[in-house]
Amino acid sequence: MLQTPSGGARSGTAAADSGLMSIGTVLNALRDEFPEVTISKIRFLESEGLVEPQRTPSGYRKFSAGDVERLAHVLRMQRDHYLPLKVIREHLEAMERGEAVQLPLVGRQRTGEDVPESLDRPTVARIGRAALLAAADITEADLEEWQSYGLIAPLEDGVYDAEAVTVASLVAELGRFGIEPRHLRVMKAAADREAGLVDQVVAPLKRHRNPQTRAHAEARAKELAALTVKLHGALVQIALGVRLP
Question: 3-state DSSP call for residue 117?
């Protein structure tokens, strides 16, 4: 059972312990399993009360090993089970009370081929409109505006890819800095071009009749996506002449 850190105030002396980690160190530790995680994502989860790092007297975040484990558990629940943040928080609180909580699996279904489930192509984790609004804590007007700029788009049946929650949360966070949705169209266009490049590389594998080859295409797409995200982040930092903590 996951041992999550208890809440409450922490002393500045404890924050100075050598076993504590900076947010950059935490990011590196998580990226092995979650290559798309960002510092903004970690800060967002903190703002939602899902992790409570200690603070040094000068205000720097310091994370314990338990904090990192808790973050990894939250990210797994988002990736593997897709649940709104409110439900994830309730799940963590139940675990802290020592209660066993069963979560539904999301992400794979049979394709009709008699192949091992590990080789099935994953389905898209989906979320309804109301759940998206609640999970990202946004309004109908926000969602309508962001859809008009192509930042978020519903799937064919009117529901959304679960990753739309991450997009919505980041768009809202950027908005607090005065960056409006219309300013983000260039980012969406760049993301579409990068996705197109990755798709060109894996397309021949995705069309293959062999389910193992198609599974390899999925793994290759994830690997290439992680590399493009890292490259994009590094290029932005170089262009701005800054380094993330």
Answer: helix
